[in-house]
Structure formats: structure tokens, C-alpha cells
Amino acid sequence: MSTGGAAGRIAGLVERLLGRSLPLAIRTWDGAQAGPEGGPVLVIRSRRALRRLLWQPDEIGLARAWVAGEVDVEGDLDEALIRLDGTLRDLGDRGRFTSADRAEVIRLAVVLGALGPPLKPPPEEVVLAGDRHSRGRDQAAISHHYDVGNEFYELVLGPSMVYSCAYWAGADDETAADAVTLEDAQRAKNELICHKLGLQPGMRLLDVGSGWGSLVLHAAQNYGVEAVGVTLSVPQAEYAKQRVADAGLSDAVEIRVQDWRDVTDGPYDAVASVGMAEHLGAALWPEYAALLYSLLRPGGRLLNHQIVRSGRPRAGGLARPRRTFIDAYVFPDGELIPVGDVLERLEAGGFEVRDVQALREHYARTLRAWVRNLERGWHRAIELAGEGRARVWRLYMAASAVSFDAARIGVDQVLAVRPYGDGRSDLPLARPVGWSL
């Protein structure tokens, strides 16, 4: 379906460049619409969106237009992203376009009145200063993502205040999933971690990247451990300390604002690292593994829960883009590595890897639950964090769910142990039922 106007011109050019029909309809600022009927509609609200793409014809240009509200989706965002997935990847491959293609794009921009100097990026885009993974830069990266406001995260995450993949045990189909709440699934995830770590009363647990304190609280309340949680986010720490005090566990749980490199008070019986290692990248992993090993007693266990990228080669052998939407707006300096690299680095640090559990589908479901929370509280989210930041979170969570579904990224729990000098591990010979998928 086409009604001409700006939408018809844009649709015609995109279809010529891609060699296929549009996956979803386009509506432009002049009210014109083109493309298939009966599904989501990509709404281009302003010529400014086209100008951004002229100067930055990749994922960053489109992200800037989205965050600024110059591009939107009418209808189901999840379906729109699924339909757009291949198209966005092709458009992101800038090498596929010839000089003639680029000239045609410029001619269309002239006709549509979209030419002009580059626009300033939205204020939500971050560029960090200093050496990558220096302490000050890591502090700034964590602050950018986590210091959005505890009330905003309460709205998105729900009462559990757990910002990592939930464990939807017993929810293999949609009917069963309706009976399992997000809070149930997050509680099950914390329980799974505690089981794998073999927690017992009186043990010492270290949670690296402890967030709002949910895991250390669960472990202290249900397993009688003494727990230490460390985070670089001051608002997170303040929130977690209040939760600990409200639970009457201040004698059992300590929350610190502390860089992981400064933790020196081992030995611990168990260490949890949940959603933390994604911030390290490949370069710091050897130091990280060595430190965690040094903090554990012999026989002590490490549970590393981490988002990973597929180890499969990229289509056409293309290198990873220099900068992505996630880099610029969500997790600056974050880096995903394949699970095989995680295992290699743990073993190089002295650990024996004993168990690996993939939870990829669980994270797609978790992200969609967070998106529903955000959409239900949309106006309040804007009041708390601003419209640009709310738009960032909605897009990143919805797009990440699509990437998990497509197996481009995954999430794995890796259980490792610091063995005794004679090779003993104190782990059970058989995997307990509670660890199974």
C-alpha cells in the first residue's frame, strides 16, 4: 500500500537499496503512508530524523532519532523490531552501498528538505573520558546506567528489584507462564544461585555487583549466611542498606560502595557475580578471575551469571560496528564475550569449571516482563527519568529480547570451584535436581 508523499518516496528508495519489500509500513510527517497494511507502523515524525541518518547512516543515527522522539513505532514494538531486524542489519552494512546509491539518497534528502548541518546528539548519549576501565571511568559508566533513580527501577523491575535474568521454572509454555510472576521467577533465580553455591549457615558470601541487595538479602534470610555486597552505585547502596535495615539483618549483611579491585577481606566461602562481568570486557577478565580466586577459600565456589555473545562468526565476516546503540546510550564500555572465553579465563585463573547452564530464553521472557512494566507506568517513568531516558530503556529492553530470541546473545550461569591442593572440590558427584533446566 502506498499513498505517495514523503513515505512513498522513502519506501521506494529503501526497497531499491535492499532489493525487497518493506517489512512494515512507514508514515511520515506529511501524513503519507506506504508499505504493508495490518501491522506496526514506523512513524517518521520529522525531517530531522532523515538528517541524522544522512550524517550518521547506521545504528547510532537511527538511535538518535528514536531517543529524540523523531522516530516512533505505532503498534506492537516487539513485532516491529522482529520485522525490522534483518533490514536494520542490512542498512547498517554501509559497505554494501555504492557511490550511486549514496547520490540517490542525497537527491531524495534535497527533495524532502532534509539537508542541513549535523544535529547535536540527544543528551542521553554518553561519551566517557579517561582511560577505558580506569576506576574513574568505570565509576562514570556505572553511574550513567544505574543512577537513573531508584523509583524508576522500582517501576521497571517490580518489587523484586532484581536487574538480571529471572528463572522461569515450570513456565515452558504461555499458559504456564501466566501462572509464574516476575517476582516468582526472580525468587527462583536467587534460590538457584544459592543452591549452586551450596550455602550453609555461618558461611561468608561475597556478591560482586550487588545492585539493590536482593541476592544478599535472600541468602541471609533463607540460608543464614554472612553476606557482603559491593557496588559502585551510591543510590543502589543506599537503597540496599535500607532494605537490609528494614529486614533486621544489619548484623548479617554489609553493603559497600567499593570497586571490586579493592575487595581484600577474604577468605569467602562463596562468591556470586551476577550481571557484573559484562562491564569488564575481555581485557580485565584475567585480573578479575585471579582476584575472585584469591578471595575464596579452597573448596569455595564461584557462580558467574553473565550475558555472552554468540561465538559464531558474523555474517560475511564483518567486524563488530565501532559503536552501537547499547554503547552510546545503555552500557558504555560494556563488552560481551563468548561463553567459551569466559570458561577459558576462569580456568586460567585457577578455577575448575563444574557446571554451565544456558538461560537464553529466560532472559527474553524477563525483558518482555520489564517492558510491560515500563509501558504500564509510561507517564510516571517520564516524570521520573525524562522522556528520552524512558525511550532508551524501552528500545534497549525490547531489542535485547529480540537478540536473545535470535541467539545472537545468551546468558549463562557458570559454577566454578577453587579446588584443594590435592584436587578435591567438595562438590556432589551428581548434579542435584534443583540445578536442572
Short description:
The chain is an alpha/beta fold.
Give helix and strand order, one letter per element, not per position.
HEEEHHEHHHHHHEHEHEEHEHHEHHHE
What is the CATH T-level topology of the largest domain?
Rossmann fold
Q: Share of helix among residues?
A: 40-55%
Distance between the termini: 46 Å
Q: What characteristic shape results from the CA principal axes?
A: elongated
The figure for the number of domains is: 2
Q: Summarize model confidence as the mean pLDDT.
A: 90
Blueprint of the fold:
Blueprint: H1 5-18, E1 25-28, E2 33-34, E3 41-44, H2 47-55, H3 59-67, E4 71-74, H4 77-92, H5 99-112, H6 135-146, H7 150-157, H8 174-178, H9 182-197, E5 204-208, H10 214-223, E6 226-231, H11 234-246, E7 253-257, E8 268-274, H12 285-295, E9 296-309, H13 325-330, H14 339-348, E10 352-358, H15 360-376, H16 378-385, H17 387-405, E11 409-417
Parallel strand pairs: 1-3, 5-6, 5-8, 6-7, 8-9
Antiparallel strand pairs: 1-2, 3-4, 9-11, 10-11
Helix pairs in contact: 1-5, 2-3, 2-5, 4-17, 9-10, 12-14, 15-17, 16-17
